[in-house]
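The aim of this short unit is practical: by the end, you should be able to scan a pair of folded records and say something sensible about each. We start with the first protein, listed as its amino acid sequence and then its structure tokens.
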Amino acid sequence: MKRIAFFDSGLGGITVLKEAMTQLPHEQFLYYADTKHVPYGSKPKEDVKRFILDAAADIMRHDIKALVVACNTATSIAIAELRVRYAIPIVGMEPAVKPAVEMNRPLGRRVLVLATALTLRESKYHELVNRVDDLSIVDSLPLPELVPYCEALQFDEAVLADYFRRQFEPYDLNEYGTLVLGCTHYPFYRQLLAKLVPPHISIIDGSRGTVRRLRELLSAHSLLNDTGSGDAGVQWMCSGRDGEYIRKMQQALELYASGRLFEE
């Protein structure tokens, strides 16, 4: 059985992988982290593009049937070229700005997109916002420290709560209806964010829609497995060939899947 590959700079794409394991229980997966170059969001665009293309070439040495670029930054920089280079279905990530705007337009509330600085600078993001945000209700907030926190498995509630409060200080959160998590690392902190923001604020990300699109493409190409077992689990890989990081990835999946990262 051919695997579906998920690619990210580090641990973030695990949030998308977990959604795929839920929606596609009969599939088998390969997860690849570019540990030589994590994080992407603070690096020059041309360097990051080279890292992505090298990682994709490494992944393609394995007999995979589809690739999910489970990283908003990598999608914005390299998805078009990856689709030119490879004939298999390739799915990328997009911040869930459109559904957020559609939810908040009739309520008169604003939308706050949280993402890496590089994602927020890219023309792909600005084109998305310009296309859907007819009332100019979308604001953007880069959170560059959050990816390193996640990569260190930093889930100390006091440390993170203080960080988020400082980042949100310039904003009147009562004006907002939705936070969009525009980096795949950020859903690791969804539970804590829900504790810190006003209760009327919804918190969304693009994982569910991305996996729905993956399922559609697999079906259209007669590649979808809808019977049998995915019990072989996940094949873990990283560019640094680091066994310790592979154990960290497995731990991160267990933590995220538990849903109890920031419970009382």
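Turning to the second protein, read its sequence before its tokens, just as you did above.
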Amino acid sequence: MRTLSRDTAAVAAGVLAPFAAALVLVPLRDNVTPTNLALLLVVVVVAVAALGNRLAGAIGALSAAAWFDFFLTAPYQSFHIEDRADIETSVLLLVVGLAVSQLAARARTLKRIAVIDATHLERLHGTTRLARFSTSSDDIVRRVRAELTDVLDLSACRFEQGSLLGRPPRLDPDGSVKVQGWIWDLDRQGWPEGEIELRAVAHGRYQGRFMMKPAPGSVPPPLESRLVALDLAAQAAAALAEDGRTATPV
């Protein structure tokens, strides 16, 4: 919801920010060349794209080109351009604005990915550190339950010992989810209903399973997050195998 609100605000900024900037530049149009005025509008487009996404940047580029034409090229207050140089500047403003907006949006995406990757690394490192120094596999299982709840946006997560009962949806080692033996389309269908099984396996031996319940309306996380969840479960399984017993359900 927070991402949606930010993107919506960025689209609105893409429409309004170039308009406001063009109005501010009106007093300068007799003393500053159109090319320099266009460059100032490009800065606004970059700011919009950095705030939002590619759509916001593209809208910002279109808006900047339109209001540059309307306010900053003769005849003023008209979308008609008489000077060929102004026409070329308007076209270049649009092209450059679109290009830099895409680059800015991509930079924002890469930054977000880097932050997510760093968070995942810290999850795995923290659990590994606990497994190295803890003498209780139950502590590790509890830690993994908490991490799974966070990384997969779950409303509940419990550890279950004993034999495998029933055929609930299962998160497989490749990060896919299977329902009754068929691969579930997470991108199109979202999480399947009910609890989802994540088996804790170490050295080919079953140690238990995490039964996970996604939060209502939550969007399935990307594959990278699901693979992190599998690694966390494997760490719990390794701790249980080292104890030579199955952890107490918690």
